[in-house]
C-alpha cells in the first residue's frame, strides 16, 4: 500500500503536467490512494488541485481526505476541511464529520469537535450515533464530563439510540475528573436503556471508585457487573484490591481474590500482593506470609505475572 499511493500520485501529476483533462473519477482515485496510504498532506494537495481546476468535490473525495486526517491525528487539517465544506455549502457526510471529530479527539481538541457537531446540526443534518460517539470520546479525552453528559442527553432528545461505546466514553470522562458517583450512575443506568456493559465499562467505573478510595461502591459495582455477566479482568481486580490494600481491608481483599480465583478468573501477582499487604496492615502476618509463599500454587488460580 505504501507504493500504491506513490504510483497513483505520480500518474496523477504526470497527467496534470501533460494537461490531460481529468474527470471526477481520476481525481477521486488519486485522493483515495493517498488517503489509504495515510498521506493526508498529499490527499489535501490533490483536493486543492481539484478546487483550482474547478472540479467537483464529490462525497467520496471529502470522506477520503477526512479519514486520512483522522488516522494521522491531524485535527487542524480536519477542522479546516470541515469548514471549507460547510463554507462551500456542500453536503457534509456523517463519515466526514465523524472522521474529523475523531481527529480532534486524538488531539484532545474537544471544543473543536463540538464546533463541528454544532455546524453539522445547523446545516440541518442529524448526527448519527457514530458521529455523536466521536464527540463524546473527544470530551472524554480531556475529562469534560459535563459536555459529555450533555451530548448523551441530546441523543435521548433526538431519539438517537446510544450504545455501549457512548456510555463507556461518558464514564471515562467522569473517571478523568474524579466524578466516581456520576460514573457509577452511568454504569448502573445502562440497564435502563437496555445496554449490556462490557469489561471496559466495568474497568473504568472500578478505577474511578478505586482512585476515590470508595471501596464499598467498588465492591457493589463489581457485584452488579457479575450479575450482568460481566466478569472483572486483571485490570478491574487491580483497581479494587489496591483500594482494599490502601485502607487495610484485609478481609475484603482476601475474599475478592479468593472468589475470583474460585470462579476461574485470572488473578495477577500484583493483586495477590496487594491482598497480602492488606493482611499485613491488619496485622494478619501469618495469612500474609502464607499467601505470598503459596502464590504459584494458589488453589484454582490462573496466575498472570503482570
From TrEMBL:
Gene3D superfamilies: Tetratricopeptide repeat domain
First and last residues of every PPR repeat: 23-57, 93-127, 163-197, 198-232
One Pfam family it belongs to: PPR
Domain of life: Eukaryota
Coiled coil: none
Keyword terms, alphabetized: Repeat
Listed NCBIfam families: PPR
Protein name stated in the entry: Pentatricopeptide repeat-containing protein, chloroplastic
UniProt source species: Polarella glacialis (Dinoflagellate)
